[in-house]
Design a protein that fits this description.
single chain, 734 residues, alpha/beta, Rossmann fold, 4 domains, six-stranded mixed beta sheet, 25 strands, elongated, von Willebrand factor A domain-containing protein 2
Length: 734
């Protein structure tokens, strides 16, 4: 199949081409006029090009105000003989005409264009208004007629019928030009680009005063263009040795003979194309702050605004810091992040400050850089206006050197805020916030330095890639103060999250301060597949970062399951956020069938137990991540867990039976259904919020049963005791 995209080319820049197409899609002729389509349905066109011709006619109808008193449309299909498909007075609306065009059936036959033109000369425009309104004939053909067309075409023009010839497939342009009205370059169209052809059609009608201009500022412009015809030509490939006979008996002579091939080539036909061009609403650059303007027709537009902008249609800043702080950005400028990473952080910093700071908004902001050494080129509070601050940030230079984040934190804790009003005893009640921007592992210890900085009252926020998550949590001391990005664009998307984190220093910590035993049950069966399993693993890793991991606060265990359940790690084995994240990264994919019921039984009997780390008097929850397979057998084990005081939260991805899932979750409040694995992150906050609510409720000291060997737990004032049968000890352990 040969592409027909470049059969007609307008020699204009891309911006003009876009404007021509936009104008073509917005035009609407509302004059009183009769339009008759003469559609080639012969075998030379073929069924594929016939369908494209129908599509072109539908698009051309979009530019016509079709109703009985304005534009009327009819159609004749021709091949060996002409056939009236529908007269001009058949349909009163655009939708009816387009629907009838869609139902037109390809007939096939020879290309008797001349016979079709004689039919119109004899019958006129069927259903038309007898030349009391302008008559327009639109011929759609490849121009490969098998009869005479010159005489009937000339007679049609003498009757003042405006004739457009539309090329289809690989047209013969000279024959189409002979069919079309004069000047031919304005009445010959190409169906390959419907929007461009509609513009051409409308521009000619405007010049002929049949239709009015689409807008006062629009104008018709002339462009050089080129049309191509696909021809079969005889090509000399070369001379080759051959043998020739002679008049002499038994005599043969050797010589060189020419060798020819037949090949298809494009023949170029230079021409002029006339198109209507209208002013684009985006020409005035209405979008501010890096927004991208997208035009909608001739007079409407909208702006695609960067994150942090969009307070109005022109991308005004929509974020603002709803708190007063002394803010210091600590930027990694070491060789580990490279010049590209440093420039990325600079761009992020400028975009963030432009989004949250008004033109004259006072804010105490500073910037420090570090590698082997630490320097503060922009002191906190040095600039009170955005322009001066942006200029100073732009002047920051990449330095290279070792990544000594620990040393930078020591230095900032002692010298980072020395010039602020807080240290000048003018205003000592503003919180001091440090935002660490790094993408390279520290080459010196950070734990002691970060603890010292926090002890000095600094509120630390860390921003970096996922491989730095554990280190950033060690720096900030709180997973909620860690922002992880996956790509340069994702970094810019974190602007609202940073704004929220900066003003969260006084907000309650929720789950951070609550004791909780939490177990994730992750479907690792073949039904989920390895790729989706990795997304489930990432969800667990992200969700776990909301909790402060220790034996005194939150314990997390993890079970993966296929046909059998496997404990990846128990509740009491991971005692820090960093060790937990490392263990989650090593989760195995099992494959096989899915048995969530056996996973819940395994959690009930071998994970949420006192001898495996579950703590009496601490609230407990299980979060099951599944694709919904095999859930019919999970309702009974889930009920056992709930009877033992353990919340069961079900997160299902894809299609599954809701009534079965409700029996497992026990309540709609503990059931979350997402359509795809990509949507998992959207429900993370909801799940964490529900778990945190459960963690704050009073816990039953006897659930799960702390008594071993089938001892009976009995609640008493402020505690419990175990009634043992055949065993002894506080928990019937001996």
């Amino acid at each position: 199949v040969l592409l027909v995209v470049n059969i007609q080319e307008i020699h204009a820049d891309q911006e003009k081409i876009v404007k021509i197409s936009a104008a073509g899609q917005s035009m609407q002729c509302s004059a009183s006029v009769d339009v008759l389509f003469l559609l080639d349905g012969s075998y030379s066109i073929g069924k594929g090009s016939f369908e494209r011709s129908k599509h072109f006619m539908s698009k051309l109808c979009d530019a016509l105000d079709i109703r009985p008193e304005r534009v009327r449309v009819g159609m004749i299909q021709f091949s060996s003989t002409p056939q009236l498909e529908f007269p001009l007075d058949s349909y009163a609306t655009k939708e009816e005409v387009k629907e009838r065009i869609k139902k037109t059936v390809f007939r096939g036959g020879s290309t008797e264009t001349g016979l079709a033109l004689k039919y119109i000369l004899h019958k006129g425009f069927p259903g038309g208004r007898n030349s009391t309104v302008p008559e327009i004939l639109v011929i759609l053909s490849d121009g490969k007629s098998q009869g005479d067309t010159e005489m009937p075409a000339m007679q049609l023009k003498e009757r003042r019928i405006m004739v457009f010839a539309v090329g289809i497939k690989f047209p013969r342009w000279k024959e189409l030009q002979a069919l079309a009205s004069d000047p031919a370059e304005q009445h010959v169209l190409f169906a390959g680009d419907a929007a461009d052809a509609a513009n051409d059609f409308y521009s000619t009608l405007t010049r002929s005063a049949v239709c009015s201009a689409p807008a006062p500022d629009c104008k018709i412009e002339s462009y050089p263009c080129e049309r191509k015809t696909l021809e079969i030509v005889k090509d000399l490939s070369g001379n080759f040795a051959c043998w020739r006979g002679s008049k002499q008996q038994s005599a043969v002579h050797g010589s060189l003979c020419p060798f020819y091939r037949w090949k298809k080539v494009f023949i170029k036909h230079p021409s002029r194309c006339f198109r209507t061009v209208c002013p684009d609403p985006c020409d005035s650059q209405p979008c501010q702050n890096g927004g991208t303007c997208v035009s909608e027709g001739l007079d409407k537009f909208y702006c695609l605004c960067p994150v942090g902008y969009g307070a109005d249609i022109h991308c005004a800043p929509k974020l603002s810091l709803e708190c007063s702080v002394n803010l210091l950005f600590l930027m990694d400028s070491s060789a580990g992040i490279t010049l590209e990473g440093f420039l990325r952080f600079k761009a992020f910093l400028k975009r963030f400050l432009q989004a949250v700071m008004g033109q004259h908004t006072p804010m105490n902001v500073g910037v420090a850089q570090y590698d082997t050494k630490v320097k503060i080129p922009i002191e906190v509070g040095q600039h009170k206006d955005v322009f001066g601050l942006m200029k100073s940030i732009e002047a920051l230079n990449f330095s290279g050197g070792e990544t000594q984040t620990g040393r930078a934190l020591w230095y900032i804790a002692q010298h980072g805020f020395r010039s602020t009003p807080a240290l000048a005893d003018v205003q000592d009640d503003l919180p001091r916030v440090v935002v660490l921007l790094t993408d390279s592992k520290s080459q010196d210890p950070v734990v002691e330095a970060a603890k010292y900085a926090r002890d000095q009252g600094l509120f630390l926020i860390g921003i970096g890639s996922s491989f730095l998550r554990a280190e950033l949590i060690e720096v900030t001391g709180n997973p909620k103060q860690t922002i992880i990005y996956s790509s340069p664009q994702d970094l810019l998307n974190k602007i609202p999250e940073l704004q929220k984190r900066i003003c969260s220093m006084d907000s309650p910590e929720g789950c951070q301060a609550q004791s909780l035993d939490l177990v994730f049950a992750v479907d690792a069966s073949a039904g989920v597949g390895l790729e989706n399993f990795l997304q489930l693993r990432d969800f667990v890793r992200s969700g776990s970062s909301h909790f402060s991991i220790s034996r005194d606060v939150t314990q997390i265990g993890l079970v993966v399951y296929g046909s059998r359940a496997h404990t990846a790690f128990a509740l009491d084995t991971r005692t820090s956020n960093s060790s937990l994240l490392q263990a989650i990264n090593q989760l195995p994919f099992l494959g096989g069938s899915s048995s969530p019921g056996s996973a819940l039984l395994h959690i009930h009997g071998d994970v949420m137990t006192v001898h495996k780390g579950a703590r009496p008097g601490v609230n407990k929850a299980v979060v099951m991540l599944t694709n919904g397979g095999g859930m019919e057998g999970a309702a009974s084990p889930a009920r056992q867990l709930r009877n033992n005081g353990i919340l069961v939260f079900v997160v299902v991805v894809g299609d599954a039976q809701r009534d079965v899932l409700l029996r497992v979750a026990g309540s709609p409040n503990y059931l979350v259904h997402v359509s795809s694995y990509e949507d998992l992150q959207r429900c993370e906050d909801l799940i964490i919020e529900r778990i945190c609510e459960e963690a704050k409720s009073p816990a039953n000291l006897c659930k799960p049963n702390p008594c071993l060997n089938q001892g009976l737990c009995v609640l008493g004032p402020g505690g419990y005791c175990c009634e043992c049968h055949g065993w002894q000890g506080p928990h019937c352990e001996s």
